[in-house]
Amino acid sequence: MPQVVVMVTSSYPRFAGDGVGSFMEPIAKGIAARGHEVHLVAPWHPAITRSKSEDGVFFHFYRYAPLRALNAFGYAEGLRSDTDVRLAAWVATPAAVSAGCFKAWRVATKKRATVMHAHWVIPGGAMAVVAARGLPIVVSLHGSDVYIAERYRVMGSVARRVFGRSGWVTACSDDLRARALALGARDTTTETVPYGVDVTRFAPNPAARIAVRREYGIDRDAPLVFSAGRLVRKKGFDVLLAAARRLSGEGSPVSVAIAGDGDLRSELAAQAAASGARVMLLGNQSQDRVASLCAAADVVCVPSIHDRAGNVDGLPNFALEALASGTPVVATRVGGLTQAIEDGVTGRLVSEQDPAALADAIKSVIGHPEIARAFGVAARARITRDFGWARVAERFEAAYTRAGARPH
Q: Which residue blocks in 250-388 are alpha helix, DSSP H?
């Protein structure tokens, strides 16, 4: 039966191709494509250029701050280096949460919602609990929300209340699911639903390989390592640059390109200058551009780590996109990466925070083209089979039904 879904989120691509919250767009549009009416409630941001509705998703952006500088709620702007909450975010949160609760309640009432789907237990889940007024709630976990609940006692208490009120909970990796259970989620109503991938956009592309390399002045046969993500500690880009330095010192230099921006840009630029390798910090790039860079590379690296505060990615969507591109992937054994990559079959996995191991894995892939091609073919086949967005939408649809069947 078609549902009227109010989707409460603190992040969504602000314009076509935006990398911020990129996984949210195919989730919302995938559910709409299955015949459901989707109303997305999210904070306003100066960069938003969305129309009132797109592909069956209706947007309801709410304003909460009189000053532009206080628009620090959501869109990956609330955390400093992904470990500490910014002062501006603390200041803006009460007004943003109040405005978001009111908007979600108003939309749910006006549109006669049948289910509320909250993204990030903190803050989306908390807002949904206030706004739902008897509606079934599904909460989806994405990583930073669970970290915040683990680190701050008050937030942990809020998360437990949200889990208690929720009819169903999804996590994007088994690691994240286990951490949610430790915070109080119920084992019987919590499942892993990994993200999907646009396998049309992220695919082998010989033309893009030629064009990108020509643009950056990289010879056709010169090794190129690519990575992408916010420039924060848990992404492990400092480890990647240390690995590149080792390779240069061993006489096996590589060019490294990193797409993304964040608080560590200056620190990484200084490290890059001292590495002896050619390093390009490309800043934020569109999804189409990231796809072209994946296709142009010889190795895509996902060097995720547990940072000093214990924060770690659930399952970076970039890892799945890289696997779909058919370019061999070298990654670390953290979070959900071990779910997506089978070492020696669909890519290489190494210990986290180990530049030597990372350098050796990159070198081994570059030095054995036949093995590299086999990794790429096997990885793309698995992603195409198991990580389609249509399948993700189908599982969320089932979660709505299960949540509605439970007392709430």
A: 265-273, 287-296, 317-324, 337-340, 355-367, 369-386
Give kind and range of the element (H or E) at residue 109.
helix 87-110
The whole model's pTM is what?
A: 0.83
pLDDT in tens, 75-113: 876 555 555 556 666 777 888 999 999 999 999 999 999
Q: How far apart are CA 126 and CA 98, in angstroms?
A: 11
Instruction: Check: CB of residue 317 under 8 Å from CB of residue 22.
Output: yes
Rounded CA-CA distance 29/36 in Å is: 10
| 29 close to 392: Cβ distance less than 8 angstroms | no
> Across the beta sheet with 255-259, what order do the strands follow?
278-283, 255-259, 224-228, 299-302, 329-332, 348-350
State the Cα–Cα distance between residues 95 and 383, nearest whole angstrom: 41
Mean pLDDT of the chain: 93
- The single-letter DSSP state of residue 388 is B
Alpha-carbon distance of 72 to 55, in angstroms, equals 28
